[in-house]
């Protein structure tokens, strides 16, 4: 598998979905449900959209683990990337969450599945920092470059620099924190709405980093290994163009295919030259999720990637051609993936 692009993901199928009132104050992307639409209709629409994302990923050869959520007190549980991340070498992180009504999204059954089906060596749980008012909301707060070992982080009360440094020390990343604001001076609530880092391409709204020196440092760090940077505008960020994620799927013939998963709204906001730059290394997979996007997050927020080695002999949910082997299983465009994985 690619160090950056996981071939398996976790999705939460939330029976009850509404934009979370507890997060509305600092999430400028969040919107109200259309007037006159019932909570039941909103939830049904969100479930259908989640199912469409899961099916699109399965059709692209990604292994999808879906967990049902029947708890009506967890309006944001469809966004598991805020409470869990997984890492090569068998490490898992569990994160402290800002909104108190999101903290019981953390699920032991998800962790048990990972331990039973994948090789998990260590679980590092930072959630005990919540009573101290210290938060780091997973791969919402951080956009991780698993190849170069960099944690890009827009500083906010959902991304505390002290716990960021602690995470980076525990998981061997370089912290790269910066301020990011919109044109009205409002801080960006999560880094993953303005940036996405793939193996060979990154999408980022550098214009939202007001410090010019820091902006150029971020640009340089992203491109140091030859990665192409696609610069997004603030308006494209508002259309969730930054809230994308690179995944590794399989063709029906069993060959690897690198995907950039995003919403249809995000895809429509991209200019032709931006699409061309992304498609030099990834196939864009887009799904329309207008109801889920009312909560202020998009496809990236819905996906917790599994960067773990699976246990041999364990029967996993079937995915088309997932067991097939590339002609050369260690290379992607001439790069030695085995070496990349060894450093992750």
TrEMBL record:
Gene3D superfamilies: L-arginine/glycine Amidinotransferase, Chain A (3.75.10.10)
Cleavable signal peptide: none
Residue ranges, annotated region (Disordered): 319-344
Superkingdom of the source species: Bacteria
InterPro entries membership: Amdntrnsf_FN0238 (IPR014541)
Descriptive protein name: Amidinotransferase
Source organism of this protein record: Nocardioides panaciterrulae
